[in-house]
Amino acid sequence: MSKVETIYLKDYKKSEFTVKTCDLVFELFEEHTQVTNLMSIIKVDKNCKNLVLNSVDLELIEIYLNDAKLDESRYVIEKETLTVLDVGDEFKLIIINKIYPQLNSELEGLYKSGNIFCTQNEPEGFRRITPYIDRPDVMAVFKTTLVANKERYPILLSNGNRESNFRLDDGRHGITWFDPHPKPSYLFALVAGDLGVIEGKFITKSKKYVRMYIYTDKGNESKCKHAMKSLKEAMKWDEDVYGREYDLDLYNIVAVDSFNMGAMENKGLNIFNSTYVLADEDTATDANFMGIQSVIAHEYFHNWTGNRITCRDWFQLTLKEGLTVFRDQCFSADLNSKEVQRIEDVKALRERQFVEDSSPTAHPIQPNSYIAINNFYTATVYEKGAEIIRMIYTLLGEEKYRKATDLYFQTFDGQAVRTDDFLWAMSSAGGVDLKQFERWYHQSGTPKLKVDEKFDGGKYTLTLTQIVPNAVDGSAQKPYFFPLKIALLDESGKEIEKKTLIVSKEIEEFVFKTSAKPILSINRDFSAPIIIEQTHNNYAFLMKHDKNSFVKYESAQSFGVETIEAMMRGEEIDEEFVKSYGHILDSEMDLSYKALLLELPSVLAIMQREEVVDFEPIYEAKEKLQKHLALTFKEKLLEIYTQNHKPASKELDAKSIGERSVKNRCLKLLSALESDEVIMMANAQYNGSITMTDRVAALDILENSSPEFSAVALEHFYKKYKDDTLVMNKYFSILAASHRDGTLDRVMALQNDDAYNELVPNLVRSLIGVFARNYKHFHAKDGLGYRFVVDKMIDIDKINPQMASGLAGAFKIYEKLNSVNKKLMKTELDRVVSEPSISKNVYEIVSKILKID
Ligand code: PHE
Ligand code: ZN
């Protein structure tokens, strides 16, 4: 890879020009699309002579300045820009150009997903459609006319409201859309296709009538109901909780199969990865239903946090993403189970963000530089960003937080702003000084908190020491300011003290008067995104007595981790842990929550604590523990399974979901016994259940324990669902995650399957991406797992760099690997950086992992 350009936040400059209005005409043909772009532009910096527009891979046809056609002496075309020379203070510019959406496999700009034309413009896709000042702080009013063959593309959509339509006598028709809200180009969208639709309506609190439409491939209409229900719930919730109302008469959602990410919040026209729209009980799991609810809400919430108030520049991305993730997490918590939601969110944070934050790709939630902005749609910007907003919420309290968000909306509506502006609103309406808190935006890495306790003559002293990791460049970073929820429990589990401590210094002491030595329940609700380091061991007690659902869960996890680590050192299984596990099995509680408590720590969770990582000892110890628990509690596990297994039920209420989740957890644990009895149960569940949740749970168990039964079940599954790509994703994932011998060969062969297509990101993620998370086979000591994924990364980079750099994530663990794996991985990664045509996306991640330059 030759020179790469790094972009810095400190180099931000205001745009020299601004676009007032942008009228677009798209003529969509089978081979190409012609774009006519009429902009009214105003010069902001009067000293500036030339207008520089972003423009990538465009074929220019003509340019007109104030209706006069420009000859070639008046403009300059470079690789990524089009410069119009000598322009006035206020002018009209018309640009006509040609693009080839049918050939666009990067899925940025205008492209085709199957027979549907669609767009993806965040962050910098618009410059692949037409020359433009493609940055989020340039906001214009858009009018869009789409023209296409009426038979093939009866549905033509863009942002805002529908204005007019016409017919041409060559079989084409046209529709004009107008969006009254000025917006940055990254929120522009269009869709054309022959689509099915379902309709819904919502009356806002000020009695405005909104019509909602969800479009999908024909035949899938009935699978959109859950998405529509979720959209209404989200609209209502944002009115109730944030006082935010929808601002157009129309809300359109379109589901497409080929999409790089989850979904996109384009104004009035969200475009979704079909995974987050389509569901019914036969084809989607309970987790899929939950995912749809939260992504639909997420995109809806962006209308206020993202669209009406947008980002000044892409370094501010967490301004909209961290905040919107926090909003969707609270929404899901309110609609489902608060305790389960919080644990799921923390789990996701640790599995991805903590790994990222301890690698050389670590970055602050507000980075100060990037090579490829597409690489910064990270767990850090999103999930850690959400944790930072949650801390602000905790510091301010519900009421002041609401005042502060009101102030934020009122002050910055219609503007493109910075995270500093958000913090200003939070601290002025919240009455909290957030100066030191700001470090969460600018420092990277996960801080640790060392906890020391002393009890002495009625005095309990808690000493907290922050251990702040260095930045990636080795420079020292400063202590954080954060809320730490704690409680002190007496020996019966009663809370004798409950407090939110404010921690701000490197070392801090908190003193409490208590008659006996209390038991500490710390970082309740995971009030700060940190790692707690404790030396004592009250886990068994806390698992039993703590009233805080998060700490109860956390204690079970920590106890599990310590037990497995002791086994890795050759010690016997800690029977105290086994007893505590049994206690959970026997306790009455919400079943989804119980299923979480019964989950043993992931290999990844244990791995994160090791100085040097080797996978085999971890999963060998974990498997041994699983088997021991299954043997010890066989009867109880069978009883829970039988009680909750209702093969004929497909209800989606919390109780039914909980039943499925706890009984599948028990069955999975029982499968460690490798007994015929359990295999028969899984087989019966596969054949008898009517939900996808039950079927994939059974299939996964069969795949990992019985080649004979799994062969039959997999064949049945394949025959039944081979034409349903969303279900085929599950099929590929189960096979790619398999622990059986020969998994790599099977994964390689599956690439030739008719249902597989390397152009579709979902399929690549479920086959190659899932394989790269299969610790056993990806990290195999023959190095073939690494070789395969790197080969794929290099191939796929030529098709879609964003998809390829996604695969690079699996290598973020490089630095912590044992010497054998590290050497093998390095050999392969070296191939990536020496590939002459590698994209900047992949180069940025891999060169950081290898610490090049
Ligand atoms: N802005 C989208 C979201 O978080 C994510 C996205 C980014 C989608 C880039 C596509 C491309 O809702
Ligand atoms: Zn988002």
Ligand inventory reads: phenylalanine, zinc ion
Characterize the overall form.
globular
Helix content: 40-55%
| Head-to-tail CA distance between termini | 12 Å
Mean pLDDT: 97
Largest sheet: 8 strands, mixed
Q: What is the number of strand segments?
A: 31
Instruction: Name the poorly predicted regions.
Output: none
Individual helix count: 26
Radius of gyration (CA) equals 28 Å
Strand fraction: 15-25%
Chain oligomer state: single chain
Q: How do the strands of the widest beta sheet line up side by side?
A: 6-5-9-3-2-12-15-14
Structural class: alpha+beta
Q: How would you briefly describe this protein structure?
A:
This protein is of the alpha+beta class and 853 residues long.
Describe the structure.
The chain is of the alpha+beta class. The chain has 26 helices and 31 strands. Strands 6-5-9-3-2-12-15-14 form an eight-stranded mixed beta sheet, with no helix packed on it. A five-stranded mixed beta sheet has the order 17-18-19-21-20, with helices on one face. A four-stranded antiparallel beta sheet has the order 10-11-16-13, with no helix packed on it. α3 packs antiparallel against α4 (338-357), α9 crosses α13 and α23 packs parallel to α25. The model has no long low-confidence stretch (mean pLDDT 97). Zinc ion is lined by residues 298, 302, 321, 324. Phenylalanine (PHE) binds next to β20 and α2.
Keywords:
alpha+beta, binds phenylalanine, 31 strands, binds zinc ion, single chain, 853 residues, globular, eight-stranded mixed sheet, 26 helices
Helix and strand topology:
Layout: E1 7-8, E2 17-28, E3 33-43, E4 51-54, E5 59-65, E6 68-69, E7 75-77, E8 81-84, E9 90-99, E10 109-113, E11 116-120, E12 140-149, E13 155-158, E14 161-167, E15 172-183, E16 190-193, E17 195-203, E18 209-217, H1 225-242, E19 250-256, E20 263-264, E21 269-273, H2 286-301, E22 310-311, H3 317-335, H4 338-357, E23 369-370, H5 379-412, E24 416-417, H6 419-430, H7 439-442, E25 448-456, E26 459-467, E27 482-489, E28 495-503, E29 507-513, E30 519-522, E31 531-533, H8 539-545, H9 549-568, H10 575-586, H11 591-597, H12 603-607, H13 615-632, H14 634-644, H15 654-670, H16 676-688, H17 692-705, H18 707-721, H19 725-736, H20 743-750, H21 761-771, H22 775-778, H23 784-799, H24 801-807, H25 819-833, H26 840-849
Parallel strand pairs: 2-12, 18-19, 19-21, 22-24, 25-31
Antiparallel strand pairs: 1-23, 2-3, 3-9, 4-8, 5-6, 5-9, 7-8, 10-11, 11-16, 12-15, 13-16, 14-15, 17-18, 20-21, 25-26, 26-29, 27-28, 27-30
Helix pairs in contact: 1-2, 2-3, 3-4, 3-5, 4-5, 5-6, 8-9, 9-13, 11-15, 14-15, 15-17, 16-17, 17-18, 17-19, 18-19, 19-21, 23-24, 23-25, 24-26
Bound molecules: phenylalanine and zinc ion.
